[in-house]
Amino acid sequence: MTSAPKPLRAASSESASDALTAGRRVLRLEAEGLRALEGTLGTAFERAVDTLFAAQGRVVVSGMGKSGHVARKMAATLASTGTPAHFVHPAEASHGDLGMITRGDAVIALSNSGETAEIADLISHCRRFAIPLIALVGKAESTLGRNADCALALPPVPEACPLGLAPTTSTTMMLALGDALAVALLDRRGFSPENFQLLHPGGKLGRRLVRVADLHHTGDALPLVSEDTPMTETLLEMSRKSFGCVGVTDRTGTLVGIVTDGDLRRHMERGLLDRRAGDVMTARPKTVSGGMLASEALGRMTDAKITSFFVAENGKPIGILHVHDCLRAGIDMDARDPRDSE
């Protein structure tokens, strides 16, 4: 019969202090590793970027163990910043997944030792079909480093693990090197915030980049009347379009005013139904552009205590944005670009 495990003892202040020291030591050593890595970047890094940029197919990233976890993240970062990429497990590659790697692709293989057995078939496949192979490796003279078209060797710095066994500093450097490649390619491709939004439609990152033109109503949905339109017809237009307002245009189609529920209340006792839209409207209404961030437009609505903005181009109404359009799309004012307030 096994005895019950002893209850865990509360950590003493001395052990807590030791943990803090250990944590700081790890961060210091990994930061030193990143500084050393920065100093090694040179022509090999430029050649790697050129190779990846020239690939007509996809970038295939592969690694085993902890390097494999880093490789998955690297593939995801590349794909989300304009470089089509995916992860292939090196062991699965030997059992059919090599078919995922074809001419026109480029391969990034991660291995700190450079002698990972599972990488061997990947190397052979790349050599057989003339597929460019980039190595992120701890030793340039390793099997992987020697057989790569371009070897990005990590600087010889110690692991943050006090045993020198657990991949810590080495995987941090690999992760950072993958980010460096992704961002260098992003710059080379001229990847824009609009491109980023197309690949990140969900989540806060995507919502920050949604534009008014992505949400506004156009065409027959616009509530518009002319200055001479009788208020009886103006009220019908407001009711049909259900935005709680109607835009008023002059003979050239320029937006010159807006009639809102507030305007109706203010003129209720002045023979409202005997008037025309131009008599009741609020002149020079505020408008937004289609290129404005939807989060900024929502912020302006909130500040002005209104529920709709007409979208104008050269003074002509081309759309209308309602606060509910923003809320349905998950837009909030916290998503506003910090530069908007500068």
Radius of gyration: 31 Å
Q: Give the overall pLDDT as a whole number.
A: 88
Question: Into how many domains do the coordinates divide?
Answer: 2
Question: pLDDT below 50 for ≥5 consecutive residues: which ranges?
Answer: 335-342
Q: How many strands in all?
A: 12
CATH topology name of the largest domain: Rossmann fold
State the major sheet.
Answer: 5 strands, parallel
**What level of helicity do the residues show?**
40-55%
Beta content: 15-25%
Question: Pairing-aware structural class of the strands and helices?
Answer: alpha/beta
Spatial strand order of the main sheet = 2-1-3-4-5
The number of helical runs is 14
CATH architecture of the largest domain: 3-Layer(aba) Sandwich
Outline, from the CA principal axes? Answer: elongated
The CATH class of the largest domain: Alpha Beta
> CATH homologous superfamily of the largest domain?
Glucose-6-phosphate isomerase like protein, domain 1
Please write the string of helix (H) and strand (E) elements: HHEHEHEHEHEHHHEHEEHHEEHEEH
